[in-house]
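Risk register update: the risk that structure generation would not scale has been downgraded. Supporting records follow, first protein first.
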Amino acid sequence: MTTRRSALAAALAGVLAVTTLAACGGSGSAAAGDQVKELRYQGNVGAVTLAELAADLGYLSDVKLKWIGNTISGPQDIQAATTGDTDFGGAFNGAIVKLASSGAPITAVVGYYGVDDVNFNGFYVLDDSPIKSARDLIGKKIGVNTLGAHSEAITKTYLAKEGLTDEEIKQVELIVVPPVNTEQSLRAKQIDVAALGGTLRDKALERGGIHPLYTDYDLLGKFTAGSYIFRDDFIRKNPDTVKTFVAGVGKAIEWSRATPREEVIAKLQEIIKKRGREEDDSQTKFWKSYGVAGKGGVIEEREFRTWIEWLDRAGELKKDIKATDIYSNDYNSFATGGAA
């Protein structure tokens, strides 16, 4: 159960070559009339994903999850789904856009993480840091969990809004650091800025001595930032399974909103304990929200259009693509006012 890390560039390498493989369905394909009922996926150390929460709550009905390892990289996770190593994956919507524009046959079906006033990603400096503004970041190092994903997009958006030129932005160095080590790297001054989110951010703030230079919530407000994707061929062969999965994730989102925070935390800790992977569950006590904006994970067009426009301006899209080419709410009954 190794933890995998890769930049988006690595995730995209050879994607056109694997498109044919994905079209064959990989090990996730089923015989005619027989839909897959076990979904292979990657998890996160010391955390509970919405898919895992849905499964534990019994919201996935006859669909089961099979954990094959952990990842800290959204781009790697969706690449694994594209090649058939897993059946679904989740990533920042901008990373999904970039992979789809390279020809990967994937569709986003439900939001699974987002940004709100209690669940956001901040970019933190030490209290005694000389960095006070975007311009001070030129020549400095920012620790992020992976390249080509959420933290990179937010950082470049911030730098551009603050007036830095493209050449100046290139001089701000993004360094891949495992999330569990990011705070330590900042305090040891191995990096100048640390991207911290969720429970890891709150644990760091509890220890004190740091403050945010910028946050994604300050920049963009509330929005769903990442989605779960399936390969298009998998969806065609297993539409009922996909519907069950999306419905379960949607119900888990709404359960987390309606349930007292203490009960949600207790459930997360229970899940981590039951799976027996010798993980530290201390970060779960800081859980506040999954941050998903849409009811039941319903995706809004702007949540992809924003990043299409941004990537297009940056010249990073392989071909023209529309938001509606990338996502679908057809499998989410919350989209039509239902409750799954």
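Supporting record for the second protein:
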Amino acid sequence: MVSVDQILQTLGTVIDPDLKKDIVSMGMIKDLEINGNALKFTLELTTPACPFNDQIEQDVRNAVSTINEISKVDIKVTARVMEGRALSIDEMLPTVKNIIGIASGKGGVGKTTVAVNLALALSQTGAKVGVLDADIYGPSVPLMLGMGKSVMEVDNNKLQPAETHGLKVVSFGFFADQEHQAAIYRGPIISGILKQFIVDTNWTDLDYLIVDLPPGTGDIPLTLAQTIPITGIVVVTTPQEVASNVAVKAFGMFQKLNIPIMGVIENMSYFKCPNCDANHHIFGKGGAKKMSEKYNLPFLGEIPLNPGIMEGSDTGRPVLVTDPNSPHAQSFMTVAKNVAARCSVIAAQLNEEMKAEVATQK
């Protein structure tokens, strides 16, 4: 009869492509049982949005098939998102596993559209997702999600996020008349509002909290970075060299604050002609890739320029909701899986650092 150690040794040959570690040492094999020639266990992946989930599952099945003594295999595949931030030192949001800031160097690059559809894509994989609209001066997340005059209730002195399409949403847009009332506040007040949205909101258990930051390097990004531990920053830019040059300033600020840069997304990357099926690079080509290569940052993917995406943002009908199987929606899904993978990598690194620190203290 084959032993548990033999099974684990065989499964230990399966390597997670993102984490570069074997699935046994990562604790991804759970509840292993052997009953004669029958094998049963749970494969717990690091996120439901991992781009390599299917590959890992197939590699596991291939590995088990090499064990002659096993003729029946029952594998349950689940996912548990890893904590990509130091929850042990965060007393404010201990139930939020990952906080991802979506930043840009300048306005007009479609950052909020990317943030909203990224959140929807992660939610559609089965993850629990929230969205914090941190652009106090120009909150547009409610409009893009078709939430209208949604109201956030207060319970036990905590804001209860509004909910739509499986997302928990907090925005200053719920408190202001977006058509007629301008947010005219100095920096300290803006920072105070953001802190209140972070600290005084009942976010409950979230795998990912997507924070849509205003463009630039002002008070709000700085407040976020200094208030709570965050997993990292995703920088959104467009293909033009001028946009990527400005984007450099955005991730430069976070690097100075020792915040991980998760990678770069290129929005409005190209337009696919419906008649000739050719890609037309209207705003230039490869600006984000060049930037990621120059500064050694992961390139998380490109989003095409598409009237449906823009119209959906204006009418509150995101493409991930109205046409989730379209190529344009799938481009967001690809980017979302790459972002989730980066979260897992950062979480694994954080876990190793914590283990090393504990070992040093001993």
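Residues 5 and 103 are 47 Å apart (CA to CA). On this basis the risk owner (M.S.) recommends closing the item.
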